[in-house]
Write a structure and sequence with these properties.
Layout (H helix, E strand, L loop, with lengths): L2 E4 L14 E4 L14 E7 L4 E6 L4 E7 L3 E5 L2 E5 L3 E5 L5 E5 L4 E7 L12 E4 L2 H10 L6 H14 L8 E3 L7 H9 L7 H8 L3 H12 L3 H18 L4 H7 L5 H12 L3 H10 L19
Parallel strand pairs: 2-4
Antiparallel strand pairs: 1-2, 3-10, 4-9, 5-8, 5-10, 6-7, 6-9, 7-12, 8-11
Length: 296
């Protein structure tokens, strides 16, 4: 494993790195599962903000976190994983990721030839208490073969996609990539569509069409979605609603609360309360909101 520290460095498709971020290459990951089973599970605490560079696995991977968030870049999409949700990464899919400081990082690896279901693309998974308990049980190294196979059979029965597939699609269009990079660097950037068009020497219509074509969202919707992604991390890190609102460039907290509710189907205060309510537990405080389809 190669490590280095980065201060204030922008990694395209992810947020600006925090000071002291540890950058790692994926290493020491299981390439196969025990002869008698299909699943290998493990967990570790991330002592500092940690970023994993682009890599892929020979096994399917399911990751989830407690007490923090995980951001994963897969192609032109950025996924944000928070308490109560996991991210399924199919074998062979190249991805990068970042976990916040102090997060308890859990992962389970599934042998493709022994897993009786297939998610062909990255997908948010509902981490129910039963599923988490089963995977925690499977992380034991002293399980008898029969006990392991019984637990795996139940895992296969209960694992299912989350109702809330929160993914931010990046434009990948040279006409507007500068806008996306600037907003990833600073989500509080409040420049209007007119100001962006003037600065880039293009028209508002061109920017609007480019965003619609590449992301399926208007410029305003895309910026709102990006800010909500960032808000999930800040709220999980313990920032209060007022502070998050200010950091994201909202003139009034009420505007932030309304935007967050439109995307997440709950208020940021309720989300924070659910995070605080079960420091070691598992809950899914968020269901698909009226505009959850924006992120599909």
């Amino acid at each position: 494993m190669v490590r280095s520290s980065s201060r204030g460095e922008l990694n395209p498709g992810l947020w600006r790195r925090e000071a002291g971020t540890v950058v790692c290459r994926a290493g020491a990951l299981p390439e196969r599962v025990p002869a008698s089973g299909a699943v290998v599970a493990e967990f570790r605490i991330v002592p500092a903000p940690t970023e994993w560079t682009r890599h892929a696995h020979r096994l399917h991977e399911l990751v989830w976190v407690r007490g923090g968030t995980l951001t994963s870049r897969v192609g032109d999409r950025v996924f944000t994983v928070f308490e109560g949700h996991g991210l399924w990464m199919p074998a062979g899919v190249v991805h990068a990721g970042r976990a916040t400081e102090g997060a308890r990082f859990h992962s389970a690896f599934f042998a493709p030839d022994r897993t009786p279901f297939a998610f062909g693309e990255p997908k948010a998974i509902a981490m129910s208490p039963l599923l988490v308990s089963l995977l925690t049980h499977l992380s034991r190294t002293d399980l008898a073969e029969a006990a392991r196979l019984r637990a795996e059979a139940v895992v296969f029965d209960v694992i299912e996609p989350s109702e809330h597939q929160l993914a931010l699609r990046l434009p990948g269009d040279p006409r507007i990539d500068a806008i996306a990079e600037a907003l990833l660097d600073d989500p509080a950037d409040g420049r209007s569509l007119e100001e962006w068009a003037r600065g880039l020497g293009t028209s508002e219509r061109t920017i609007t069409r480019a965003f619609r074509r590449s992301t399926g969202l208007s410029f305003a919707q895309w910026r709102q979605m990006l800010r909500v992604h960032r808000a999930l991390t800040l709220l999980s890190d313990g920032f209060d609603v007022m502070s998050v609102s200010e950091r994201l460039g909202y003139a009034q907290p009420s505007s932030f609360i309304a935007a967050f509710r439109r995307v997440m189907g709950t208020t940021p205060g309720a989300f924070s309360g659910a995070v605080d309510a079960a420091p070691g537990g598992v809950r899914n405080p968020v269901s698909g909101g009226e505009n959850a389809g924006l992120s599909a």
